[in-house]
Amino acid sequence: MSGGRGRHRLAPAVGALALALAAGAQQAAGPAARGLSLREAVTIALAHSPRLRAAQAEESAARAAVGEAAAGRRPQVETSEGFTRSDNPVSVFGTLLSQQRFTVADLALNQLNHPAPLNNYATRVAVGVPLFDARQAELRTREARLGVKAAASASEQARQGVVAAVVNAYYRLAAEEAGVRIARSAAAEAASSLHQAQARYRAGMAVQADALRAQVYAAQAEEALAAAQGQAEVARAGLNQAMGRDQATPVPLPPDADDAQAGVAPEAASLAALLEAAQRRRPELQAERNRLAAARAEVTRAQAAFLPTLEGAAAWEHDQWRFANGGGSNWTLGLTLRWTPYSGGRRRAALQAALAAERRETARSAELRQGVEMEVREAWQAGVTAAQQARIARQAAAQAAAALTIERNRYTSGLATITELLGAETALTQAQNQALEARYALAVSAANRALAAGELSATAVTGATR
After folding, report:
1. What are 14-27's pLDDT values in tens digits?
2. Which of 11, 143, 145, 202 is the most exposed place for a label (fewest CB within 10 A)?
């Protein structure tokens, strides 16, 4: 299968999963009635996530760095206004000439050797033009533009990470709330068994130990219910954190958010298609490719630093002995060629550092590619395993429910012991919790696959919901 077909299969798979998981939540008329949908949770997170805001700020800084680097290729204009007062013979002689106030009297020996102090207000405008800067500004600009691309990839990585975190937190909360319902049902079953055991004991049909055992079991069921409620509160705070909100904010979910998970299997994209898509689209790999290109540009810049530079300059100056009072003006044009045959080893050391940085980024690229491949394999296998476990756990829960019905009837008829009845109740609770965990793993597996392939987006997750 081509990478394009694999990519197109991922988005419908995640979207179909989201539809099945959140369809019940989307049917009600108002937000308060239907609870928080996955689409709303993702939208809130993308608007308020501190992680995403930090990534966007980093991208803005990278764009600004391009302008800073490109400025090195443009003319630089400087202006200055200065004041001096001096009786230095050379300074006075030159200043008089600049002010265009030099006279024959100023050639007298005594005047030349012992001039009176002279004021000078100097207004200066200078322009420097880098005609050839050994490609330094050009290569810095190239590096900065590659930095923008790397920062954009980092922003996309952050965006996908935020979406994945919301999907996981959303269905974690749905699973924990379903766990509360399972625990509440188990506590009710335990209370019923306790009532039945006590009635049989009072009727002389069971020993006191049976009633006490049922009482202990009922207390344990209440403890399990309290623990499940606490886990649901933690999961609710976790969803708020993923959305960038105050963790104490109430988060009502649709009452059937967990029920929608049952029986849903993500569309199975081939492992080869996922691997091919990840190598092309994973933001981390795109960012690393740009970092490697920037490192190579830095090597070129370090090599070009051995070349000479050529700069043009122009200046205009106005000198006057009183502020805003007459004076004289002059201008200067010039070219400066600079070449440093020996820099004390600084440029060679900079080149060696740039070459080492290039080798480092090359090694990191290889390591990152291997890491991404491993993540894709893990995500793909997790999806396969989750589908299998969900099917098996669903069957086991149904069998455990049937077994409890049989044991309760046998206990009522006096054919089973309280130990057998409570064992059947325990088995049902365990099977239901295992089925719940399997449904949770299945619910997030498609999103995790898309994340591993670098194709997880808000549209892919929520586009199928209404």
Report:
1. 444 443 444 433 44
2. 202
